[in-house]
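Key result, reporting period 2: structure in, sequence out.
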């Protein structure tokens, strides 16, 4: 769906004309218009990001951190073998496990995040499924629109909106018997919205995942995202 908004303010004024020799000549009359346009487009998200977490509980911090570190090293090494996959790590936490009933510390929990980002949904889901089988928990799995695609669509929409402004200005100029049209100033405001979708839930809890020989691969589908721009244009109509 594409929308069109027109706001018109007509002001008569004159601007000095400058000759080739730099001398100011007689003033030229202009009519000034303020026009606004909106253009929007629904596009499919092109990237996928998964955030997984490996965690361990135990009595001694050095033991549980060692297990987390080893699991992360193995996972990062495997992930880096996947073509076109961006691999990074997130939060690393070591916290006390507090028994509220006994009112005392009963151990520690260590965890670290692994973040995977790619355009290849199939490769991402296969790897995520393997990592879940190794005890990783899925924190978040979501599609999104890349900045490159957003910029490309915004450029396309700006051109579309400007073409409509030009057409509208030409029609107004014809109605008012003006001889020419000049787009003097253009201001752009962009918006991106994502349609709501259900939150992803990891398959099973930590204990269940750890007991599985092979976890089923998770599922994710790209959503449509609305890219919208608003422009405000100052148009000069020459008498």
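The corresponding designed sequence is given below.
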């Amino acid at each position: 769906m594409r929308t069109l908004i027109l706001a018109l303010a007509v002001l008569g004024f004159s601007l000095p004309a400058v000759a080739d020799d730099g001398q100011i000549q007689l003033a030229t009359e202009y009519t000034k218009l303020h026009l606004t346009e909106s253009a929007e487009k629904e596009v499919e998200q092109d990237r996928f990001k998964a955030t997984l977490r490996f965690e361990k509980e135990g009595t001694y911090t050095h033991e549980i951190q060692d297990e987390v570190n080893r699991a992360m090293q193995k996972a990062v090494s495997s992930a880096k073998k996947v073509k076109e996959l961006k691999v990074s790590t997130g939060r690393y936490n070591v916290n006390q496990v507090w028994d509220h009933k006994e009112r005392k510390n009963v151990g520690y929990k260590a965890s670290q995040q692994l973040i995977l980002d790619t355009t290849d949904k199939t490769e991402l889901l296969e790897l995520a499924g393997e990592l879940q089988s190794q005890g990783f928990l899925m924190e978040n799995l979501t599609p999104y629109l890349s900045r490159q695609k957003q910029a490309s669509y915004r450029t396309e929409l700006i051109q579309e909106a400007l073409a409509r402004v030009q057409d509208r200005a030409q029609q107004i100029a014809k109605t008012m018997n003006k001889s020419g049209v000049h787009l003097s100033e253009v201001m752009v405001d962009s918006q991106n919205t994502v349609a709501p979708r259900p939150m992803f839930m990891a398959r099973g809890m930590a204990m269940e995942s750890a007991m599985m020989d092979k976890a089923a691969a998770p599922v994710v589908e790209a959503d449509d995202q609305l890219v919208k721009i608003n422009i405000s244009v100052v148009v000069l109509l020459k008498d």
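The chain has two domains: 1-44+145-239, 47-144. Strands lie at 11-18, 24-44, 47-58, 86-99, 104-118, 137-144, 180-194, 224-238. This case is discussed further under Risks and Mitigation.
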